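step 3/5: co-fold with phosphoenolpyruvate
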Amino acid sequence: MNKFSGKGVYGAIAIGKISVFKRQEVSVHKTHVTDVEHEKNRVNSAKELARNQLQEIYNKAKKEVGETNAQIFEIHMMMIDDDDYNESIISIIETQLVNAEYAVAKTSEIFVQKFSSMEDSYMQARAADIKDISNRIIQNLDTSNARSSENDEKVIICADDMAPSETVLLDKEKVLAFVTAGGSINSHTAILARNMNIPAIIGVGADFLSVIKDGDSAIVDGYTGDFIISPDEKTESDYLEKQSYDRSRKELLHTLKGKDNVTIDGKKINVFANIGSTDDIGPVLANDAGGIGLFRSEFIYLESNDYPTEDEQFTAYKKALVSMAGKKVIIRTLDIGADKKAKYFDLPHEENPALGFRAIRICLSRPEIFKTQLRALLRASAYGNLGIMFPMITSVSELERVLVICDAVKAELKEKGIKYNENTELGIMIETPAAAVISDKLAPLVDFFSVGTNDLTQYTLACDRQNPSVEQYCDNHHEAILRLIETSSQNAHANGAWIGICGELAADTTLTERFLRMGIDELSVSPSYILKIREKVRSIDLSK
Ligand code: PEP
Ligand code: MG
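step 4/5: write tokens
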């Protein structure tokens, strides 16, 4: 038995087998082959495996998200047998005498280009599907890499560190817990773990990686940050007991479902949920959230190998709005940059990325990307109660430029007769000290503020949220942070705007009363914290 310690990110206990995280090698090398028939047979076997995998995914999706949403996997199965696609692969192998991987990758490139250049937006969207099935076939060609579809056991993922883009690509159904050598509490990877409701421990230090191997049994205690490898019988049975107590306590919270978020003296507050993708909507509904206070739309970009098309985005936003059936859904525009990087953005290397080219700065300097997203958002607004929120605002002029672009997109939609909701609320994140200090000037321009305490803390206290060695300075209870929130709240209300908090601090129940006394109207937290906040709100008496 070996014990390591780090920081628990989400309170729960996991007991299971370790899987050491392996980074996927995506580059395909071109090699010369002599046995053409062998390569063609390899393609056929990889396709056969892909068909089986897709059938299994289709069946699961049909059960979980319904037939309409599952249809995409049927389309993928049909694409695998498309004559033109297959002829291209075979012809590249035969004429160029190259390996199957290269032939599939080249065919994918040709077809993606063909689909992307089509006028019809439906056909354009098929480019992503071609990429998807081609990647699947390429992965299956490497038999050491091809994942047997029977291996469905949930595992404890152990890694040195994980980028948000790597975390979102994990099959959430198969992750029991995370343990990483590096990382910090407010990193996006930690936030994702919280959103996924899985116990996670970060900052364990690199030593544990040399002790573990795939298949070792282990215990993750997300409360204490303890990570126990190869536990003895007694330890395991103690933890099984702790796990079952933890589960029953969480179940107890579910008796609060359907109740109001109201204080003893009658003050109501909105308790909303933070999500990173439409996959998180299940837990949002299961935990009885009053709405979605932060949909981090950049995760749609991180999950793609290329800029998501307007239609792809529209489909995701519409799904969130329809699923929430008229409840508020606040979608934040692209907050890419800093730790959230997608290769295809081709962002410059920066010494201080958190202080660099990020979020609204990228959108304003690449307006076409921004406009595509705004068009998708506004089109989706016709299907529910949307709020659009802009990240990383630091000045009035910046916000004015954003609003001019928004108006231009609305005018364009109107001219084309495309429906959207004129009353879509527009708001900004208060996550830079500058925005909080000039919140009196910003509030008249928007309908709402949402305080991003994760960034507000790092920028106010000058401590990188990604850097574990300065975590001791990241005191998010610091009076400076609380005063900035209070100032923003006063200025929002003085100008007829409402204010919420969507950073991780919103879930800190030791501050709930203080937030309510400041006049905060909404708290947006990971779905699993909603009922805990409800319990806390219902215990507060503001009249005392
Ligand atoms: C924040 O900064 O508090 C926030 C909610 O945004 P993110 O964590 O995605 O930067
Ligand atoms: Mg932020």
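step 5/5: annotate
The chain has 20 helices and 16 strands.
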